[in-house]
Specification:
- The structure is a single chain.
- The chain has eleven helices and twelve strands.
- The longest helix has 48 residues, at 41-88.
- It is of the alpha+beta class.
- It has helices spanning 2-35, 41-88, 104-137, 156-162, 181-193, 237-272, 279-310, 323-340, 359-375, 422-427, 434-444; strands at residues 141-146, 151-154, 197-205, 208-220, 226-235, 319-322, 344-348, 354-357, 382-390, 393-399, 448-454, 458-465.
- Helix content is 54%, strand content 18%.
- Helix 6 (237-272) packs antiparallel against helix 7 (279-310).
- The protein folds into four domains: 2-105; 138-235, Beta-Lactamase; 240-310, Helix Hairpins, CATH 1.10.287.130; 319-465, Histidine kinase-like ATPase, C-terminal domain (Heat Shock Protein 90), CATH 3.30.565.
- Strand 4 (208-220) and strand 5 form a beta hairpin.
């Protein structure tokens, strides 16, 4: 193509030059005819030969020069053309580097265009990376659909939440993606109304039931054109569970407080209504009132204790204490209750085990655990406490031979007011807060507690504590 264009342009210029010389020859011949009318014919013939020769030589030289100029110019243009094609293909690093003065402005324009396109591309890539980073960094699921309803964007949070792969979803219409029905309906609403949509949804996923806060809105371009819609799904499952726990806690507190208050009120009214005249009945009712008052006070004390432990400013009084002494002090508190049921308390704790802890709080932990063990153990059984070093941690196990705990109750054992056998637990004088307090105190000591149990065999609580505290900021 290059050779064809060069040949055509060269022929055109040569023909133009030839015509110009012919016209010049005609003009000169007419001028010679007028001036040399009286010149002899022989002289005129020599003149014409000379004129033809000179014009021919000039024509050939001019044609050669024109051909060379055309060739050089076309070569520069061809180089610029190839550069422009490379730039159009995305190679913005290409430059013309031509020295041809005639095509210099064109070459500079192409080079500047390539530079501008390179800068624009860099900025676009940077913007894409920023958007990608933003989309992947937010803690919410995100979907973006084009005007036709096809999925253009999806982030990793959505993939993880709904166990899907973006490769199988991108480019498909939302109606063919098998989205959870509440989400699909919300997408339809935004497409139909072109308005912001906010609602709370409950959907089933492989991970279980998830509570989501959905925000959907149209995407409007810089010039006001409608580009599609965006859907953001924020997982509020933990917030919903927290609200449920709060409501349950309030209900439990109300119930636990109402029971002794109702009892106290009822027996007091009975005394006032005439039972006071019967001394024995009055004393019996007053004893019940005293027990219910003690129970009410214990409940309030445990609530206040749990509240103090859960506060961010709660701190421990750290010191190095022998574990054997801690367990002995706790055992002394429950020894009387153990004797009443003929339960033997046995210990296998090395005197050499010393840990950094709050001694008073640690005694409180073991008092709760040993008290529960004695309460729920059968008479004439034993409660055994062992302690040893495992993998750099102090591991303490408190085992009983009691009624055991059903498997479905174990995960909720450390919840406030949760009781496996509510009536029996209440009769035992417990508040339902002991194990919740134990769990929080263990966390304050940077430790853990877990439980294994088998019905009609017994229960074992396993505590793991670092011998040296890694932090002393409490909870």
């Amino acid at each position: 193509m290059k050779r064809t264009m060069t040949a055509r342009l060269t022929i055109a210029l040569v023909v133009t030059t030839f015509v110009a010389f012919v016209l010049l020859a005609i003009v000169l011949s007419q001028f010679f005819y007028i001036v040399a009318r009286d010149v002899p014919a022989a002289v005129q013939r020599y003149y014409w030969i000379f004129l033809f020769t000179v014009l021919t030589v000039i024509f050939l030289i001019t044609s050669a020069i024109v051909a060379k100029i055309v060739h050089e110019s076309m070569r520069a243009v061809e180089h610029i053309t190839q550069t422009a094609k490379q730039v159009a293909a995305g190679n913005y690093l290409m430059r013309t580097a031509t020295q041809d003065s005639g095509a210099k402005e064109l070459a500079e324009a192409v080079d500047q265009l390539a530079t501008n396109l390179q800068e624009v591309t860099i900025f676009r890539e940077m913007d894409k990376e920023r958007i990608k980073t933003l989309v992947e960094s937010i803690g919410s699921s995100l979907l973006m659909f084009g005007r036709g309803g096809k999925l253009n964007m999806i982030n990793g949070v959505y993939e993880e939440t709904f166990s899907v792969k973006r490769e199988t979803m991108l480019g498909k219409s939302f109606s063919s993606l098998n989205l959870p029905e509440p989400i699909e309906r919300a997408i339809e609403d935004v497409f139909l109304t072109e308005r912001v949509c906010e609602k709370q949804l409950t959907v089933e996923t492989i991970q279980g039931t998830r509570h989501l806060s959905l925000y959907g809105a149209p995407v409007i371009g810089m010039h006001g054109n409608w580009l599609g819609i965006i859907i953001v799904l924020h997982d509020i499952t933990n917030l919903v569970k927290l609200e449920e726990v709060r409501k349950e806690f309030v209900a439990n507190v109300s119930h636990e407080l109402r029971t002794p208050v109702t009892s106290i009120k009822g027996f007091t009214e009975t005394i006032i209504d005439g039972a006071i005249d019967d001394r024995d009945v009055t004393l019996q009712f007053l004893e019940i009132i005293r027990k219910e008052s003690d129970r009410l006070q214990l409940l309030i004390d445990d609530l206040l204790e749990l509240s103090r432990i859960e506060q961010t400013k709660f701190t421990l009084d750290w010191s190095y204490v022998p574990l054997e002494r801690v367990i002995a002090d706790a055992a002394a508190v429950v020894q009387t209750a153990a004797r009443e049921k003929s339960i033997e308390l046995t210990f296998d704790v090395s005197p050499s085990i010393v840990i950094e802890a709050d001694e008073h709080r640690l005694v409180q932990v073991f008092v709760n655990l040993l008290s529960n063990a004695v309460t729920y153990s059968r008479p004439e059984t034993s409660v055994h406490v062992t302690a040893q070093i495992e993998d750099g941690l102090v591991v303490i196990r408190v085992s009983d031979e009691g009624v055991g705990i059903a498997e479905e109750d174990v995960p909720r054992l450390f919840e406030r007011f949760y009781r496996v056998d509510k009536d029996r637990a209440r009769d035992s004088g417990g508040t339902g807060l002991g194990l919740a307090i134990v769990k929080h105190l263990m966390e304050a000591h940077n430790g853990t507690i877990d439980v294994t149990s088998e019905l009609d065999v017994g229960t074992t609580f396993t505590l793991r504590l670092p011998p040296r505290a890694s932090t002393k900021n409490g909870i």
